[in-house]
Amino acid sequence: MFIRNYWHLKATALADGAQRIMSNGAVSIYFFIAQPMRFADDERFFTSCITGHDLGYVELVTMRGPVDVLGVEFAPFGARVFFDFPISECTGLHVSPSDLGDVEFLDLEARMLEDIPMERRVALLDDFFLARLARHGSAGVNLGRMQSVFGTLLSSPVGLSADVDMSPAAMADIACLSAKQFSRVFADYVGLSPKTYLRIMRFHSATLLMKQMREEGDTSSDIAWRCGFYDLPHMTSEFRHICGLPPSVVLNQSEVFTEVFQSTFSAKMKKKILVCNMI
pTM for the complete prediction? Predict the structure, then answer.
């Protein structure tokens, strides 16, 4: 309910490069097991960090050699359940356990980086999150409001349903809050404004729909309109902003590179990460 999945990426980088991670409106934790790594927008090297997604993408810099990353992907409102700070404080940032001064998180990081089987690392994650959930995870009326909103928001297989009004105003009504109150609570739990989050959802919905719609004979303009964009230039601009690529490139990828709105996580690993220079 609060954690979408754990994922493991193990590979060998044949050359220096960067792996693009699309924004999905949710917070992630990364543990860099083989070697410390950094992001293109931050000069620091991390052995672990919490990353709060913003509207655009981030790039994980990979150096030649082994790459071994264990990740935790939260539900959009889930990270707030386990950490005692507003998620808006890490939006678009990479926050280390030291930055937070979180002693338990620091201890988890140290144990995750030991030479132990992956099954043991997964068990450590389970223990860490279950302990925090038992301590303070299920309390709070605002958490219930977020669960109601996202229960409606993600009811469609592609996240956005043409039959459901999911404007920020409609979301505030579901939460039984004024627009101003809802925007504050939403940012506290998700780290983004409702409007920004809906823009990200529309992008991911479009990536899931585009191939199907093209196979049905839709034109590019038809696709843009049916995916909720004003017109094709609007869709192109949003795609470039969010993933750095035009819709035509995304459409021609052999794999759909989002699983944000799937109920299960496939064996194909983290499709949001475009893996280059790797085997």
Answer: 0.82
